[in-house]
Design brief:
heterodimer, A: about 425 residues, alpha+beta, PmbA/TldD fold, 2 domains, 6-stranded antiparallel β-sheet, 5-stranded mixed beta barrel, 8 helices, B: about 450 residues, 6-stranded mixed β-sheet, 24 strands, about 20% helix, globular
Chain lengths: ~425, ~450
C-alpha cells in the first residue's frame, strides 16, 4: 500500500510522507476482587502528509481501503496552510531498525494477563485495604514510516501495563507500572504500594497552614513538568510568545545542579526508537544543563519556519496525526540526597495538576496520599492539604533528588525534595 | 455451534473531524481526517467480553457471528457473575441545526476565523491563537434484544487564546464555545475581545492570598463544582466499586436544602445523548433534590447491582466500551440575586472562569481552578486576583452552600474518566460557599 500511495502522490506533490501503524492489545479489568471485563482491540492508522511549495497538508484514517480519500484530504489541507521556508523531509540514513522496545514474551496470551492480575492481588494483600478497580494489559504495535525521499523505516514494539486502586475507610491508594519489557514491571510491588497508601493513609491529622519542605514522588513531579515546563521548552511556544523560557537561552533557569536532558537511548525508556515521528535520527538534547537553558525542542516545520536547527523532537499524538513537538525520554537529574531523611511532607500524587497556569507556572493543587516523611521513611499520614507555588521558581529550590527514578510516559524522574513551599492546611 | 452469550451489543461510530489552527495570523493547519470504529460487547458465562475493531468490518444491522464469538472468547478471563437490567429503550430525535457546518466550505471557515483572529487585539498582546474543531459522526447501535438505532450528530466549536506580556509577566486569556446547534464561529468578536481584555487585565492582577474564606462561584465554575464534587461521586460504577463517599447515602440529607443537582443527557446541549451507548432511553435524573441524595447515575449493569437511580448514563468513545458518565450536569436555580450573594458574602472572594478540576471520589476530595477572581470587601468587588484554586471535602462543602442564585447558565466542555473523553456541559447559578479553602502562594 505504501508504494501505491507514494506513486499516486508523486505527480501531484513535492514531497509525501506516510505513517502506517498497526496495533493489537488484550487486557482485563478488575472490579473489586474479580475480573469483570476481558477485552481485545485491533487498531490501524494511516497518516498521510504532503508538502507543496512549503505548504503542509495532513490527513489520517483508520480504514486502509480509504487511502485515496485520505490523500485527497491531505492535498486539500495543504492548499489552506500558510507556506513556510521548507527544506525537505529527511532521506534514508543507515539507522539500526533493531527494535529497542520489543519483548517477544509479550503475546496475546490470556494466561499472562491472569498471572499479572494475580500478582497485583497478591502484592495488595500485604496491607489491609480493599481493591476498588485495577487492570492489566499487553499490547503490540508495528510502525512503518516512509517518504518520497526513499526513507523506509519499520519497527515493532510491545508494552505491558498494570494499575490498581484501593481504599481503606476514606483513604485511597493508587499505583501503576508500565514497560515494554515484562522483567521491568513489578505487579507485586505495584499492588503492595496501592495497598500501603490506602491502608497507611488512614487516620491522618489536619495540618496547619505554613511553609514546609515537600518531597514530590516521581508521579507528582512529572505532573508539574507536564503542566508547564515541557510546554515551555517547545520551540513553537517559544517563537509564538507562549513560553516562559522565550528569550532566556543561556540564562540560569534552575538551580545550578539541575539538568533536564532528553536522552532517546536511555535504557529506562518505554518506547525507544532510533528515529523521531518524522524519520529524523534522534540524539541527546540538553534542554537545561547545570541550571542553564541550552536548547528548545523543534520538529521540522517549526525549525524551518523560524530558521532553527531541527532537534528530532517530533512525536505523533493528537487527532489529526500531524507531527507535533514532544520529547523522547526527558531525564531530570540533580544532586543525589536521601530525600526522606529530614522532616518534610511527602506527596504521592496531585489532584488537579492540569489546572496549573502553563504561561506563568503558578499552581495550587490538592495533595493526594500525603505523609510526613523523616528518618528515611514515610511516617504519619496527613489528612488534607493544598500546595501552592510556581513551577519555574521551584526549579531553583530543588534541594536534591533520589537515586531511584521512575519512567512515566516520556519522562524519567526521581523523587524531588523542594524547600519552603506554601501548604494551606485545614488544621488550627 | 451456537454461542452461549447472555447479551450482546455493537456500536459503530464513523465520521470526519475537521480542524483549523490559526496561530499568530498564519493558518498552521486546516484539514479533515476520517474515523470508523466499532466495539462489540458480549455478556458471557460470567462477565463482559469486549472486542474493538475497525468499523468497516462490523455491520451493525447484521452483526456477523464471528465478532460475537471473538468478544465471547475474551470474556473467558472474567471471574464474577455480572447481571444487567432490562431498561426502557428509545431514541430522541436530534434537533436540526441552524447552519450545518458541513454546508460551509473549508475556505469560508478559514476566512471567518482569520477575520475573528484580527479582533484579538490589545497593546500588550504578544500571542494569539484560534483552534476550530468540527466532529461529524454517525452512530449505529444494535443489540441482542433486536433494538437498532442510528443517528447523526455534529459537534463544532472553537477556542481563542490571547497571551499578554509586560515586564516579564506573562498571562493568558482563554475563551471557548462548543455546540450541537450548528456552526458557531460567525460574529463572535465578543469572545475575541474578552480573551484579549482578560489577558491584559491579568497582568495587573495580584496573586491570591491562600486560606479559609467565603467564596462566590460564578456559573461556569459552580458548574465545574457540581460536576467534580457531586457528579463523579454519584456515578454508579464508582459507587459499586466502593470508591465513592456517596455510597449508602441515598435518602440522606447530604447538603444544603437549597441544593438540587441534575444530570440530563436528554437535554439538547453539548452533552446531548439521543440514546445512551448501550441503547437505554435517556432522561433527567435528579441526583440531589433539596439537599437529599436521590439517585445515582447508572448503566444497565450498575442499576442491576446498586438500584436507586436511572440507567441511560452509559457512554463511550468510538471503539471503546461505554462506562457510566455524566452528560449535562447542573445545579438548579435558587432565588437569590447576584447582588444579594455578593452583599451577603461581605468579605471573601469571587471566583470566575474555569481551568478545570479533579476529584478523588473515594476520599471525597476535590480541587478546581478559577482563571481569575475579585476580592470582596464590605460586600463589594475590589482587586482582581489571578490563579485561584479551591479544594475541599465533598460532604462538608455541600453543607456550606449558603445561597444559590437565580441566574443558571450552562457551559460546554469535555470530561475525562478511565482514559475516555466525552463532551459534556456543566452549569449552575452563582453560589455562595462559606469557609472554603482557597489556594494561593501568599499566606498570613
Amino acid at each position: 500500500m505504501i508504494d501505491e500511495i507514494l506513486r499516486a502522490a508523486e505527480k501531484i506533490t513535492d514531497e509525501t510522507e506516510i505513517l502506517l501503524a498497526r496495533s493489537e492489545s488484550i487486557g482485563a479489568d478488575l472490579k473489586q476482587n474479580d475480573i469483570a471485563i476481558g477485552n481485545r482491540t485491533q487498531g490501524f492508522g494511516l497518516i498521510i502528509r504532503v508538502i507543496n511549495n512549503g505548504k503542509i497538508g495532513v490527513s489520517c484514517t483508520d480504514n486502509p481501503d480509504s487511502w485515496k480519500k485520505c490523500l485527497d484530504a491531505a492535498l486539500v489541507s495543504s492548499r489552506f496552510a500558510d507556506p513556510i521556508p521548507w527544506k525537505g523531509l529527511p532521506g534514508p540514513e543507515n539507522l539500526s531498525q533493531e527494535p529497542l522496545a520489543y519483548d517477544n514474551r509479550i503475546t496475546p496470551d490470556p494466561d499472562l494477563i491472569m498471572e499479572l492480575i494475580s500478582q497485583l492481588k497478591s502484592g495488595s494483600d500485604k496491607y489491609p485495604a480493599n481493591i476498588t478497580s485495577g487492570s492489566a494489559s499487553l499490547a503490540w504495535s508495528e510502525h512503518t514510516l516512509a517518504n518520497s525521499n526513499g526513507l523506509l523505516y519499520s519497527v515493532k514494539g510491545t508494552s505491558a501495563h498494570i494499575s490498581l486502586e484501593m481504599i481503606a475507610g476514606q483513604s485511597t491508594g493508587f499505583e501503576h507500572d508500565a514497560s515494554w519489557n515484562l522483567d521491568l514491571i513489578d505487579p507485586e510491588k505495584t499492588g503492595e504500594k496501592a495497598a500501603f497508601f490506602a491502608s497507611k493513609g488512614q487516620g491522618g491529622e489536619e495540618i496547619k497552614t505554613g511553609s514546609y519542605d515537600v518531597i514530590f514522588s516521581p508521579t507528582a513531579f512529572s505532573q508539574l513538568l507536564d503542566a508547564a515546563i515541557i510546554p515551555a521548552l517547545s520551540g513553537r511556544n517559544v517563537h509564538t510568545g507562549r513560553s516562559f523560557f522565550a528569550g532566556k537561552s543561556g540564562q540560569m533557569v534552575a538551580h545550578e545542579a539541575i539538568s533536564v536532558i532528553d536522552d532517546p537511548f536511555d535504557t529506562r525508556g518505554l518506547a525507544n526508537c532510533a528515529w523521531d515521528g518524522e524519520g529524523m535520527p534522534v540524539k541527546k538534547i540538553p534542554f537545561i544543563e547545570n541550571g542553564i537553558l541550552k536548547s528548545y525542542a523543534y520538529d521540522l516545520r517549526t525549525a524551518y519556519r523560524y530558521d532553527q536547527t531541527p532537534t528530532a523532537s517530533a512525536v505523533r499524538l493528537g487527532q489529526s496525526g500531524a507531527p507535533s513537538i514532544g520529547n523522547h525520554n526527558l531525564v531530570l537529574s540533580g544532586p543525589e540526597i536521601s530525600v526522606f531523611d529530614e522532616k518534610g511532607i511527602f506527596v504521592h500524587d496531585l489532584i488537579g495538576a492540569h489546572t496549573a497556569n502553563p504561561m506563568s507556572g503558578d499552581f495550587s493543587v490538592e495533595l493526594s496520599s500525603p505523609f510526613f516523611a523523616h528518618d528515611g521513611e514515610l511516617c504519619e499520614p496527613i489528612r488534607t492539604g493544598m500546595i501552592s507555588g510556581n513551577i519555574f521558581e521551584i526549579l531553583f529550590r530543588i534541594e536534591g533528588c533520589s537515586k531511584d527514578t521512575r519512567t512515566l510516559g516520556s519522562s524519567i524522574i526521581p523523587y524531588v525534595r523542594i524547600s519552603d513551599l506554601t501548604v494551606i492546611g485545614r488544621g488550627s | 455451534m451456537t454461542i452461549p452469550y447472555r447479551y450482546y451489543d455493537i456500536r459503530r461510530v464513523s465520521g470526519e473531524v475537521t480542524q483549523i489552527d490559526v496561530d499568530n495570523g498564519k493558518v498552521d493547519q486546516a484539514g479533515t481526517s476520517f474515523f470508523d470504529k466499532a466495539v462489540i460487547r458480549v455478556l458471557g458465562d460470567k462477565g463482559w467480553g469486549v472486542f474493538s475493531v475497525s468499523g468497516k468490518e462490523a455491520d451493525c444491522e447484521k452483526l456477523s457471528e464471528n465478532f460475537i464469538r471473538e468478544a465471547y472468547a475474551t470474556s473467558k478471563v472474567t471471574t464474577v457473575d455480572i447481571t444487567i437490567k432490562d431498561t426502557p429503550s428509545s431514541i430522541h430525535s436530534v434537533p436540526s441545526m441552524r447552519e450545518n457546518p458541513a454546508d460551509v466550505s473549508l475556505d469560508e471557515k478559514v476566512s471567518i476565523l482569520l477575520d475573528l483572529y484580527k479582533s484579538i487585539e490589545g497593546r500588550d498582546i504578544v500571542s494569539r491563537r484560534i483552534n476550530f474543531i468540527e466532529k461529524d459522526e454517525t452512530v449505529s447501535f444494535s443489540d441482542s434484544h433486536g433494538h437498532f438505532y442510528e443517528y447523526h450528530l455534529c459537534r463544532n466549536g472553537f477556542s481563542i487564546m490571547a497571551v499578554a506580556s509586560r515586564s516579564g509577566i506573562v498571562q493568558m486569556g482563554y475563551e471557548r464555545d462548543h455546540t450541537i446547534s450548528g456552526l458557531n464561529i460567525r460574529h463572535r468578536y465578543d469572545l475575541a475581545h474578552e480573551a484579549a481584555n482578560r489577558a491584559e487585565h491579568l497582568l495587573d492582577a495580584r496573586p491570591c492570598k491562600g486560606g479559609i474564606m467565603h467564596a462566590v462561584l460564578d456559573p461556569e465554575l459552580a458548574g465545574v463544582f457540581a460536576h467534580e464534587a457531586v457528579g463523579h461521586a454519584s456515578e454508579g460504577d464508582l459507587v459499586k466499586e466502593g470508591s465513592s463517599i456517596l455510597k449508602g447515602k441515598i435518602g440522606e440529607t447530604i447538603g444544603s436544602p437549597l441544593l438540587t443537582i441534575v444530570d440530563d443527557p436528554s437535554l439538547t446541549e453539548f452533552g446531548f445523548c439521543p440514546v445512551d451507548d448501550e441503547g437505554s432511553e435517556t432522561k433527567r435524573t435528579d441526583i440531589i433534590k433539596n439537599g437529599i441524595l436521590m439517585s445515582y447515575l447508572h448503566s444497565k449493569e450498575t442499576l442491576a447491582s446498586m438500584g436507586n437511580g436511572d440507567a441511560g448514563h452509559c457512554r463511550g468513545m468510538p471503539g471503546i466500551e461505554p462506562i457510566v458518565r455524566m452528560s449535562n450536569t447542573f445545579i438548579e436555580n435558587g432565588d437569590s440575586t447576584y447582588d444579594e450573594i455578593i452583599e451577603t458574602c461581605k468579605s471573601g472572594i469571587l471566583l470566575k472562569g474555569s481551568r478545570g478540576g479533579q476529584v478523588d471520589p473515594g476520599r471525597g476530595m476535590f480541587q478546581f481552578n478559577a482563571e481569575y477572581g475579585y476580592i470582596i470587601q464590605n460586600g463589594e468587588l475590589t482587586d482582581m486576583v489571578r490563579d485561584v484554586s479551591l479544594s475541599g471535602e465533598i460532604l462538608q462543602t455541600l453543607h456550606s452552600i449558603s445561597l444559590v442564585g437565580n441566574d443558571l447558565a450552562l457551559h460546554p466542555g469535555y470530561c475525562g474518566k478511565g482514559g475516555q473523553t466525552v463532551p459534556v456541559t456543566d452549569g449552575s447559578p452563582h453560589l455562595l460557599l462559606n469557609n472554603a479553602v482557597v489556594g494561593g502562594c501568599e499566606i498570613d
